[in-house]
Write a structure and sequence with these properties.
single chain, mainly alpha, 6 helices
Length: 278
């Protein structure tokens, strides 16, 4: 006689748990229930050996054991799967938070280094040129010196020229010519003190007025070098962040694949009828 057909069992939907601790408690309870069912089956079989229908008694005990153990196994597996998924979720969230904090620290450090490099490479400010005031003062002093020098010479030449002119005019016409040429000869010697004023003006404007071409080129080269170093460092950090993000994505994909395998409902193998077996 052929055994009756066995109807396929449909997997029940996965239950929900309040927390990982609750799921772990349910898994422990299911494990204890299975152990108790196995112990009860062993004791029942020992009692059946003293009865007349020992075989049927043992078969009933085995069916009861199989029913309890299958139910306990399904409950335990579902609870343990939830515990593993919850632990994986907490671990992923911790990693994401740590990565975000590290990226923020790296971004702040990079910005600080770039700002420091920009400040270091910035050319120095030109100092305020004091040459204009000193040159004007020198020109004023030179002008006052020339005026003072011209005034006494005119005052002293007038009294001395009048006796000489009167005597030379009275004596002969030829003596008047040297007397008239003498002031023209001494005029350049009195106008000579005006020359130092130009030197004072140039010496007053020269210090700190501007940088030389070599100094400007050196500052520009240093600035461009700092900019290149900052850009290279920023590119390196961007590559490292991209590589870390790729690694995290690969690990996340692997974890999701493992979770999908665990979440897939497994078909419970059908137990054949056990009539007439010990």
């Amino acid at each position: 006689m052929a055994p009756p057909p066995v109807e396929p069992k449909v997997a029940a939907p996965a239950p929900t748990y309040a927390s990982a601790e609750a799921a772990q408690a349910i898994a422990d309870a299911a494990r204890a229930e299975r152990a108790a069912a196995v112990d009860a089956y062993t004791a029942r079989v020992r009692e059946c050996m003293h009865t007349f229908f020992a075989t049927s008694c043992a078969d009933k005990a085995r069916e009861q054991r199989n029913t309890i153990t299958e139910r306990a196994d399904v409950t335990r597996q579902q609870a343990e799967l939830f515990v593993r998924q919850e632990k994986a979720r907490v671990h992923r969230e911790g990693l994401a938070a740590e990565n975000a904090r590290r990226d923020a620290r790296d971004a702040e450090a990079t910005a600080a280094r770039q700002a420091e490099a920009a400040r270091a490479a910035q050319p120095p400010a030109r100092p305020a040129g004091p040459g204009t005031g000193s040159g004007a003062a020198g020109r004023g002093q030179a002008g006052r010196g020339q005026a003072g020098a011209a005034t006494p010479s005119a005052g002293t030449s007038a009294p001395s020229a009048s006796p000489a002119a009167s005597s030379s005019a009275a004596s002969s016409p030829a003596a008047s010519a040297p007397a008239s040429e003498a002031p023209a000869a001494t005029a350049p010697s009195r106008a000579a003190p005006a020359a130092p004023s130009t030197g004072a003006t140039s010496r007053g404007t020269a210090p700190g007025a501007s940088l030389s071409a070599a100094e400007q080129a050196e500052n520009r080269a240093a600035f461009e070098k700092k900019q290149a170093e900052a850009k290279a460092y920023a590119d390196k950090r961007a590559e490292e962040r991209k590589e870390n993000e790729d690694k995290r994505e690969r690990r996340r994909a692997a974890r999701e694949a493992d979770a999908a395998k665990f979440n897939a409902p497994a078909a419970t193998p059908a137990t054949p009828p056990t009539q007439g077996k010990q």
